[in-house]
Design goal:
The protein has 4 domains: about 20-145, P-loop containing nucleotide triphosphate hydrolases (Rossmann fold, 3-Layer(aba) Sandwich), CATH 3.40.50; about 150-225, Helicase, Ruva Protein, domain 3 (Orthogonal Bundle), CATH 1.10.8.60; about 240-325, Zinc Finger, Delta Prime, domain 3; about 330-420, DNA polymerase III clamp loader subunits, C-terminal domain (post-AAA+ oligomerization domain-like, Orthogonal Bundle). The strands form 2 sheets. The chain has a 5-stranded parallel β-sheet with strand order 2-3-4-1-5, sandwiched between helices. The longest helix is centred in the last third of the chain and has 17 residues, at about 290-310. It is globular. It has helices spanning about 5-10, 20-25, 30-35, 50-65, 75-90, 105-115, 130-135, 135-140, 150-165, 180-190, 195-205, 220-225, 240-250, 255-270, 270-285, 290-310, 315-325, 330-345, 405-420, and strands at about 40-45, 65-70, 95-100, 120-125, 145, 175, 215. The chain is of the alpha/beta class and about 425 residues long. It contains 19 helices and 7 strands.
Length: about 425
């Protein structure tokens, strides 16, 4: 039985991994482990199709260790015992344990001593946040690395590699993938390389050759094979981002009808991830402190949309869009944090006052750390006049409150009152 293209194209060594340069690039943590052959157990977490299994496979290939793959949800303790016995007989084994967040306590208790002995190098893979979903006993024995969504360029690179590879890819087939079809395939899969390669293989294997023997993969064919429509058949590939831009600007401009129109385009394209990401950004960037409850309601709407999926997801999303459009607006929070970041990037900051520094270690008092700190809860109204910014920027004011909503009006009054109370009289 022919294995799927995504499986066949799995990297054999760490240099072949697409993306994840923050982990496997020169000088980065996993590359250092591989180069030094000093591997430790780890948990890789991130969205589906972003390379968690590929990293594990490439580590094994680069280090020449035996590689075994199990699923914590479906494979039994007996399967784990087989891997451990192999490690005892032949040396270190790298074990990829998918869905590690579903590892039961009996399986965990069996694995722990073998992780500590180093016979098993565990690479756990999960789409769940390991700090929440994985037992502390496992977490304490592993390093945790976030695997980030692949960029469109990463996915394009992998697709072109698969089209050229004659051994494991589709290089032996006379395929021509049109530019707009390639663009759609890289974009619509949202960084899920597995989905992109599966869609490409289905298109290639199900499209009959033309009279000259060419397998021509057009945008229409790719749309059908990935079940996602292109927003517009544009040559420059800008339509996708144009719609998203118009979507955010319509909400910022309080035009509910325009915002619903542009979201409808995204819904028709099946682009739920872009809608969800953009709504969350808008809620905090454009509405912000003028109406924090609208942001909280947006989070709830996006969570509901993710759980029920399209087409029903359109309902909570429409509620959120109308809510955000008709809400008061304020960008004071993003302006404030960007202003603070600008100062940091310019090097425009000073030393932290000694009385604010950590004083929880032996000898801290000898260094004057924490000495003179005024604990606000010891004072009336749980507040005391005290300088918190470094001397160099002690008069910096990043937050400039607005009055576009009742909540931020109240914040402004309190903010100005506290600021005035800090001024020496």
């Amino acid at each position: 039985m022919m294995k799927p293209l995504a499986y066949r194209m799995r990297p054999k060594k760490i240099e072949d991994i697409v993306g994840q340069q923050h982990l496997i690039g020169p000088g980065k943590i996993i590359r250092r482990m591989v180069d030094a052959r000093l591997l430790s157990s780890m948990i890789l977490y991130g969205p589906p199709g972003t390379g968690k299994t590929s990293i594990a496979s490439a580590i094994a290939g680069s280090t020449q260790y035996a590689f075994r793959s199990l699923n914590a949800a479906t494979d039994s303790k007996k399967d784990l015992e087989v891997v451990v016995e192999e490690a005892k007989m032949s040396g270190t084994v790298i074990l990829l344990l998918d869905e590690i967040h579903r590892l039961t306590k009996p399986k965990q208790d069996f694995l722990l001593p073998h992780l500590e002995s180093g016979k098993i190098i565990l690479i756990g893979a999960t789409t769940e946040n390991p700090y929440i979903s994985i037992n502390p006993a496992i977490r304490s024995r592993t390093q945790i690395f976030e695997v980030k969504p692949l960029t469109e360029e990463n996915v394009k690179q992998a697709i072109l590699r698969a089209l050229k590879d004659t051994e494991n890819g589709l290089g032996s087939l006379p395929i021509t993938l049109t530019d707009d079809a390639l663009l759609h395939l890289t974009r619509v899969t949202h960084g899920d390389l597995r989905s992109a390669l599966n869609g490409l293989e289905l298109a290639a294997k199900s499209t009959p050759p033309s009279t000259n023997g060419e397998i021509l993969l057009t945008l229409k064919i790719i749309e059908e094979c990935v079940q996602r429509k292109a927003l517009v058949h544009d040559k420059n590939g800008d339509a996708h981002y144009d719609v998203i831009s118009a979507f955010q600007k319509s909400i910022r401009g309080s035009d509910a009808n325009a915002a619903l129109h542009y979201m409808a385009r995204l819904i028709e394209a099946g682009d739920l991830p872009s809608i969800n990401r953009r709504l969350l950004t808008i809620a905090y960037e454009d509405i912000g402190l003028a109406n924090p409850q609208a942001a909280a309601r947006t989070v709830s709407a996006v969570t509901a949309a993710e759980k029920i999926g399209l087409p029903e997801a359109r309902i909570p999303l429409a509620v959120a869009v109308i809510d955000l459009c008709l809400s008061s607006k304020s960008n004071s929070a993003i302006v404030a944090i960007d202003s603070a970041i600008t100062d940091i990037q310019k090097g425009d900051y000073g030393e932290i006052p000694n009385y604010l520094r950590d004083a929880h270690y032996k000898g801290a008092a000898d260094l004057n750390r924490g000495v003179g700190y005024k604990y606000p809860h010891d004072y009336a109204h749980d507040w005391v006049k005290q300088q918190y910014l470094p001397n160099k920027i002690k008069n910096a004011h990043y937050y400039q409150p607005k009055e576009n909503g009742r909540y931020e009006k109240e914040l402004k009054e309190r903010y100005l009152g506290l600021k005035n109370a800090q001024i020496p009289h």
